[in-house]
Amino acid sequence: MDLLVSRLEALERAVYSAERHAEAAAHLDSSTRNGLVEQVLQIERQLGKVLSENSALTTGLQKYEKLRGSIDGDGDLELSRQLLGVNAKTELILLNDSALHTLSDLRTIDSLQGKINQPEYAAAAELLLRIKQSLEPENDQQMTEFKQVVADISSMVDRYHSEIDALSEMFVQWDRILVNIERKVTELENASR
User: Fold this and answer.
1) Cα-atom radius of gyration of the chain, to the nearest Å?
2) How far apart are the C-alpha atoms of 84 and 12, rounded to whole Å?
3) More confident: 171 or 11
4) Rounded to an integer, what distance in angstroms lies between the CA atom of residue 41 and that of residue 38?
């Protein structure tokens, strides 16, 4: 809440100082006043252009215009504080905060404008294309070699399995032969006793 109050006080000081500047401008001579009028008109044109491009600022200005009578009052700052309710003060603070964020975003965009579409980006895209074109033949060759190696390994694994199967068959047959020999030896020993 303290933050809200301090921001509101800063906003009230800004409004109050604007009123004092208006009073000081009333005392200027007519030639200076005409130059200032031209400057004000130019600022109003620029403001109109910015407002037409940004709907959030237009909405904020409309909200301000609705509350202007309560904010400006008769110049007495304390009276203006009393006229504004908490909701109106909160809305003014939020409006001010939104405008600050928008202004900050616009400044950021403006500062980054020079970094967009720089010649280095086009050069990088061209270099990427050249690298891709130079690496594609080598990549194709490596893929062909890889496929050949995979085929060779598959062939070797198949041969290994077939040899293991053949050896297993031989061991099974030798086992049968040995079992038959042992059985016949046992029969002959039994017959000779």
Assistant:
1) 46
2) 11
3) 171
4) 5
The pair of three-digit structure tokens given for residue 17, joined into one six-digit string:
């100082």
3-state helix, strand, coil in the chain (%, to 5): 90, 0, 10
Q: How far apart are CA 136 and CA 131, in angstroms?
A: 8
pLDDT by residue (tens digit) across 96-115? 666 777 777 777 877 777 77
Which three-class secondary structure state does DSSP give residue 12?
Answer: helix
- Determine contact, residues 70/83, Cβ cutoff 8 Å: yes
Q: Which of 110, 100, 101, 85 is nearest to 14 (CA)?
A: 100
Query: How far from the centroid of its chain's Cα atoms is residue 20's Cα?
Result: 45
The span from the CA of 109 to the CA of 150, in Å, is 54
Q: What is the pTM of this model?
A: 0.31
The Cβ of residue 68 has, within 10 Å, a number of other Cβ atoms equal to 11
Q: Residues of 148-180 as b/e, b for ≥16 C-beta within 10 angstroms?
A: eeeeeeeeeeeeeeeeeeeeeeeeeeeeeeeee
Q: What is the pLDDT of residues 8-32, one digit of tens each?
A: 677 776 666 655 655 655 555 554 5
As a whole number, mean pLDDT of residues 164-177 equals: 93
- Spatial contact of 73 and 83, defined as CB atoms under 8 Å apart: yes
The answer to whether 99 touches 60, Cβ cutoff 8 Å, is: yes
For the residues 128-136, what does the mean pLDDT come to?
88
